[in-house]
Amino acid sequence: MFRDTYQCVYPVDLVEPKTGAPVNTLLAICHMDTSPWPENPVAFKLLKLRPGQGEACHWFTQVDLAWILDGESMQGRHGVVQ
């Protein structure tokens, strides 16, 4: 997991509801502070929120791509890599 003041990255295991067997692992990348965001993102309109009133998360599967700094690049930055 990576987290800092503004973002968190969580691994999330999906399981088959009846058996509890693992199906897949996804990543949830969450923006924890949306207060500096503009007023008009579609997500805010759909959720009836304004900037700063909630978190915004993206779900990534094994076929999605996200550019994330590695641990070495994170040295000296705010945040924790676990």
Automatic annotation (TrEMBL):
Residues 1-70 form the BURP domain. Coiled coil: none annotated. The keyword Iron-sulfur does not apply. It is found in: Secreted, Cell wall; Secreted, Extracellular space, Apoplast. Pfam families: BURP. PANTHER family: BURP DOMAIN-CONTAINING PROTEIN (PTHR31458:SF16), POLYGALACTURONASE 1 BETA-LIKE PROTEIN 2 (PTHR31458). This is BURP domain-containing protein 16-like. It comes from Dorcoceras hygrometricum.
